[in-house]
Amino acid sequence: AVLTRGAGWTEEEKAALFDAIDYEQGAGGAQSVPAGGDYGEASTWKAGKVPGAGESTMVRGPGEVVFSGGSMAKTATVDVFAEFGRTATFRQTGGYFATSDDFNIGTGSIRNMEGSGYVYITGGTNKLTGTGKAWTVGRLQNAYAEVSGSGVLDCSVSPMYIAPSWAGGMRYAEFHLRTGGTFIGTVINNNNGGGGKFVFDGGTCVPTASNPFTGSDRLYVAEGGVVIDTEARDVSVSYALQAYVEQPGGLVKLGTGGLTL
Q: Count of CB atoms within 10 A of residue 63's CB?
């Protein structure tokens, strides 16, 4: 079937059309309804059931999906994306949420429709468990990720990528490590297009390699400052720390290993 409309499509009509489309995800795929909801509620998902561990999962805007507790160890991809200037949000407030496949925020692997993906981890642990996989912030769509409160993001098995690919409609791809939050792992900031940023803002960074930041020089410091726990490892940060705000915070080093800036 071919859709035609001589006078062209308004943005509202385009959005309504895409709301009615189920993206092809293969057997067992799942996507959230536009209104969002609790991850553990069947009504949050178009299929009318909670996604299983092996089902690829799409948190699709404009709604917000909240994972508040329990344990989910997925073996399939997770995508957080939206179209036509809208925003999709995944918020974790507790529990354990892991995937052995890719976790993508603002993903262009579906479609580049100039939307935005947001992820907030304020409690519990979010972990990437698959070797050779990626926890990606900004992949052809705008993306923002934040770890704060008592939240933990564990990328010790495979790295976080920031802005590995860039599209003309993108404006930002940022990760913020805020007070109380913990990031464990390494970061590859490809920074294609110039908008990829890792921002220290009072949360604790626990590197799992001696050179944890590679790819570009986009490391920033906000009001909360830098906290790095080297544990027993000697760590080197080879890029300059740049001011994200007019008066950035200081630096605190934890652990017995050395830290070279």
A: 18
